[in-house]
Structures are given as C-alpha cells and as structure tokens.
Amino acid sequence: MIILNNDAAADLEVELDLGRDASGVVHTETLHAPALDSREAHITTSTKSDSLRQGKCSVTVPHATGLRVTLS
C-alpha cells in the first residue's frame, strides 16, 4: 500500500490493522520528491523492518513524503 503525507510540516502516525490472523514482516520504502506537487519521486529502501503483532503495526510517514508498505 502507498500512504502519502501531503502536510509540509507534520509527520503522520498511522496504525495499520490487517486483521487478527495476518502475520508477516512489514517493509517500508520512503518516497521523496522535490516538492509536494512533483510528478516524480525517488524511493529509498529502509533497513528497518517490523513484524505484525496481532495483525497490527504502526508506521510514521515523515512530512512531505510517502511510504510504500509491503508485507512478506
């Protein structure tokens, strides 16, 4: 899934609930662009991953960026 934070100043805290039976490792990649209205973005892979706990995990989307969240 892609989560976009169009706020130029505030980070966005998001709790993902994929269902109690969901399990796996959550990987995130950050989408960076030169401006909020840019039509291009660059992807930075995070070295941090997190496991789902009872199908849930929390992610922080930094201001003026986006996250691509995948589950494996």
Note the main attributes of this structure.
72 residues, mainly beta, four-stranded antiparallel beta sheet, 57% strand
Structure overview:
The chain has 72 residues and is an all-beta fold. It has one domain. 0% of the residues lie in helices and 57% in strands. The chain has no helices and six strands. Strands 1-6-3-4 form a four-stranded antiparallel beta sheet, with no helix packed on it. It is elongated. The mean pLDDT is 91.
Radius of gyration of CA atoms, rounded to a whole number: 13 Å
The total count of helices amounts to 0
- Low-confidence residue ranges: none
- Structurally, the number of domains stands at 1
Overall morphology: elongated
Estimate percent helicity: under 10%
The termini sit apart by 13 Å
Estimate the mean pLDDT confidence.
91
Sheet-strand content, in percent, reads over 45%
Most strands sheet: 4 strands, antiparallel
- Within the largest sheet, what's the order of strands? 1-6-3-4
- Based on helices, strands and strand pairing, what is the structural class? mainly beta
Q: What is the tally of beta strands?
A: 6
Helix-strand string: EEEEEE
Write the layout of secondary structure elements.
Layout: E1 2-5, E2 12-17, E3 25-32, E4 42-51, E5 56-61, E6 65-71
Antiparallel strand pairs: 1-6, 2-5, 3-4, 3-6
